[in-house]
# Entry
Amino acid sequence: MKKNINIILLLIAGWLVSCKKDATTGMDEMKDKAKVVFINVTPNAASVAAQASREIAIYPFYNGVQFNNFPIKFPFSNGYKAFNPGTLTIRLDTAQSQANNPPGVAAKVTEFGYTVEADSYYSLYSIGTTQAVDTFFVKDDVSFPTAGKAKVMFLNLSTDAGPIDIVDDITGLVVAANISYKQRSGYIEIAPATFRWRINVAGTNTVLRAPRDLIIDANSVYTVWARGLRVIPAPGATLGNHVLQLSYHANRWTY
# Structure
């Protein structure tokens, strides 16, 4: 019995080690496919109170196929999905989310084609406003950072923020400088930590958005983006989470 228990413990220990080693399971699978994640970064900028308070979500279609049972609400994503390399036709439809009563009928707002490559990762952001939907498409670099470090890229996807700096609220260090709308920084490598980053007007000490905490883990890859509205349209009925803020997610996470 003791021998059996020891074997079981060894198996459990081996499983835990393998889980840590393969924590990025899925990232290196299906190398013959392109992987695309959709993120809704499209705030509602309606100037009519009854319309501004509605939550407008987005349905992404890939080569005519809808992979989600519900539209993607602001500011969320639907995770990487795998596709054959070549031309990927993406259509975006807007609709009131299921939380609205009744939910709105979906309406096509844009359709476009992107060339995607095998064993590559891409992020598609719906940007602009729900009254004028736009897109931002970026190829993600999910290769590992230097051991023990994290790799981070920054985007400005706020329609009215203007050029921005991302600033460490503790040290005052400018982490990413002078990023204009629909622009990206290069990747930087940093030591893992919980950071407090804020949004400033580029090149100044003027704070556009107070800091928020971002948990950055080692051996992982992140994208951080500014989203939402700097100025809420009158009469000010826009949903509170559509105000300018930093969002982030891990493109590759090791835990």
About this structure: Confidence is low (pLDDT under 50) at residues 1-25. The chain is about 10% helix and 45% strand. The radius of gyration is 21 Å.
